[in-house]
Amino acid sequence: MRRLPVYLLLDCSESMIGEPLDAVEDGVRSLLSALRRNPYALESVSISVITFDVKARVAIPLTEVGMFRPPSLSVKPGTSLGAALGLLRDSIERDLVKTTSETKGDFKPLVFILTDGQPTDDWKRQATLIRTTRPSMANIYSIGCGEEVNFEIMGQIADVCLRASDLSADAISKVFVWLSASVGSSSAKADDEPMLLANVPMADGLEVVDLAKPPNFAEKAWVYFHTVCTSSKKFFLARYRLDPKTKSYVAADAFPLPEDFFSEGTPQAPTISSSKIDGQVPCPFCGARYSFMCDKCKTLNCFSGKSSSKTVTCAKCGTVLRLNFVDAMDIGGSAG
Ligand SMILES: [Zn+2]
Ligand SMILES: [Zn+2]
Known about the structure:
Elements: E1 4-11, H1 19-37, H2 39-44, E2 45-52, E3 56-64, H3 81-95, E4 110-115, H4 124-132, E5 139-145, H5 151-154, E6 160-164, H6 169-187, E7 206-208, E8 222-228, E9 235-242, E10 249-256, E11 271-273, E12 277-278, E13 290-293, E14 300-303, E15 311-313, E16 320-322, E17 330-332
Parallel strand pairs: 1-2, 1-4, 4-5, 5-6, 8-14, 10-12
Antiparallel strand pairs: 2-3, 6-7, 8-9, 9-10, 11-17, 13-14, 15-16
Helix pairs in contact: 1-6, 3-4
């Protein structure tokens, strides 16, 4: 039986925290149950999951649908799409059965890249290696969710780019409905013709991007700050959304960060002046409504606004700081 290898390259950058990443996990599970109900897919499809954030890793190596166990996903800073493309190339070169004069090898792989932002690493070298291999290595689809996706970049990586309106659970679940239908219909075709999956009917809110005229994107529609709670010493991600009228970033929401969030490093990101920040996201652990920045380690700490002495202690590095009110300061943002 010839296999149809399917690679899912999933963006696990911190901007996917909360509802979007939960929706992707659910989506992978529903993809799997749809493929298991499809006799062609059950026979032929093998799936691999590659995740990318500060690094890229093979979460699940190429595994047949019947044996596949969906991975649990968690966020880290950064969007190392280039590294993920490198792992994809390695797997295609290593794991695929090649066609010889005696046997028919695997079908050309289908690759789906799901992302909400822009790569933070060198994606171009890997993209060029993939795009210039002949015959082509895979049929690559990129699905950009939300307003920060740069389709000029994605168009240099993928054969077809699709765009989902936003990062809601509803939009992401529609992406996976389309994906399930696409993989299912490909598995029923027993030839090597290139598939035009974009011809599988689109769901509402999902559209094919015209790469001759890539849509505008918002370079920094959101900014993110890592903040440590002075009471619990745990970290959270505070999100601020750009108000296009005032050009300032308005306090939106906060999410507790997973324990291993910083374990593999944090990419450098530009600083943002506090004069561009409007409001304060309350600490999700203790409810504190202010924050201070440590002079020494530059970490933001939540702050209740009350201090018996005129000093505060940084919950990250332990430095005792004099409280000092300033009009504006530069705050280290994060890569998203
Ligand atoms: Zn707190
Ligand atoms: Zn500190």
